[in-house]
Amino acid sequence: MESGIGVGVGVGIVIVCGLPGSGKSFVSSLLLGILQHGTQDAVDGDWVGIDFDDICEGEGKCPSCIQDDGIMEEKQWKEKRKEAINVVEGLLHQNKCVIVDDTFHLRSMRRQLYQVAREAEVGFGILFVKSDVKVCVNRDRLRDHPIGSEMISNMATRFEEPQEPWEVANVMILENNNDDADDSKDNEPLKAHACVDFVNRCVHSPLSSYVALQEAKDVERKRTAENMKHQNDLVLRDAVKRIMANEHFSTAKREVKQQAARALGVMKRELKEKLDCGAITMEQAIYSLENFHLSNQ
User: Fold this and answer.
1) Cα separation of 126 and 291, whole Å?
2) How many whole angstroms separate alpha carbon 150 and alpha carbon 61?
3) Pick from 17, 95, 97, 19: nearest CA to 51
4) Which end of the chain has fewer beta carbons closer than 10 Å to its terminal beta carbon, N or C?
5) Which residue in 187, 196, 193 sits closest to 97, CA to CA?
6) What is the pLDDT of residues 149-165, one digit of tens each?
7) CA–CA separation, 221 and 135 (whole Å)
8) Distance between CA 171 and CA 199 in Å, rounded?
9) What is the pLDDT of residues 181-226, one digit of tens each?
10) DSSP-based three-state secondary structure for 20
């Protein structure tokens, strides 16, 4: 099998998602600062941060989220998203660890980067910054360029939280509903430490590529099939032994016993071939052997 990008352990993608105003960009910035400056909690790696807003121009909004005249056309928006994903792929080729900041409110958006990580055979994680809509709206009002409560509420109704198996296995949910500045500062070190621990686990647990997974499944299926064939042979052998141990054959003349053993051997092979290809069930095979026994009583 041809390997993926080949960067392996210590490289990965961590997406930081959440509603506008949830604090995801603050978390991304704080986490990136720790990772880039090699503090005590830092994870080894060459870390870079990507804000999809800078490439896609606008809070991860898809055209269906708002109706403003200024929103880009859906085709253009998709092209921008593809461009952003290409940037991430390029960074992985440079053995970079990438933190991606975006709303990622649709599961399909997150799946795109999951597939990139899987094909590259690198780590992957989702840091979901979860905040109540009211809290997000209040924070948004304090921005220099607020996007408005309608936009946030609209996106909240469409937000697909990480719940699929591939997401649950790689997600950390960070509750961020406190607007108290002093309390937030007190909790920052604890939250940061938890986030760094999560990132560390992610980048040191590279995903297997689709090809690798398929090959592993093929090997397992083959092993299972071979094991089933072996089990079929053992069960049929036991059935033949039971029939030959029957009083009718055990007291028969040597020539009769040899003839019966040969006939049962041929029947066993034929039945095993049918079993192995799924043409008959084991119950049908045993019934056929028992009928041979009964026909010779």
Assistant:
1) 62
2) 13
3) 17
4) C
5) 196
6) 999 999 999 999 999 98
7) 51
8) 10
9) 333 444 565 578 888 889 988 888 888 765 566 666 777 778 888 8
10) coil
The identity of residue 218, as a single letter, is D
Report d(CA 16, CA 6) in Å as an integer: 24
Q: How far is residue 52 from each of residues 101, 109, 159, measured CA to CA in Å?
A: 6, 11, 17
3-state helix, strand, coil in the chain (%, to 5): 60, 10, 30
Strand runs (DSSP E) across 74-205, as ranges?
Answer: 97-101, 123-130, 171-175
Contact 260, 276 (CB under 8 A): no
Tokens, residue 51: 């804000």
What the block records as the tokens of 206 is: 């590279």
Long-range CB pairs of 177-183 (<8 Å, 24+ gap) are 177/131, 177/132, 177/135, 179/135, 179/138, 179/139
Burial of 161 (0-12, 13-18, 19+ CB in 10 A): middle
Residue 172, both tokens = 């950390």
Residues β-bridged to residue 15: 100, 126
Type of residue at 175: E
Structure tokens at 65: 């989220």
Torsion of CA 130, 62, 102, 106, to 10 degrees: 50
Measured distance CA(183)–CA(232) in Å, rounded: 67
Q: Per-residue DSSP letters for 168-181? A: HTTEEEEE-----H
56's tokens: 């896609």
What are 152's two structure tokens?
Answer: 């946030």
195 CB neighbour count, 10 Å cutoff: 24
Question: Tens of pLDDT along 168-187?
Answer: 989 999 998 876 533 344 45
